[in-house]
Amino acid sequence: MELSEADLRFLVETVATKRRDYDRMQQIVRDKPDFQETLLEEPKLVQRLLNDEETFVRISPQLLFSILLRQVRRDLNRDTYTLDWADSNERLPVFDTNEIAGLLEDPRTRDYLVDLLCSFVKAESTVVTWRDRKRFRKRRFSNLDMDDMIQLSKLVEPVLTGRYYKRAADIALFMTGIYPDHMNRFQARARRRLATQRTLTQYEQEGSHFYQLAARAFEDPSLRQSLTTLSESFTLARRAFNALADRYLHTRRESYFRGSETG
Question: Do 14 and 42 touch, CB atoms closer than 8 A?
Answer without folding.
Answer: yes
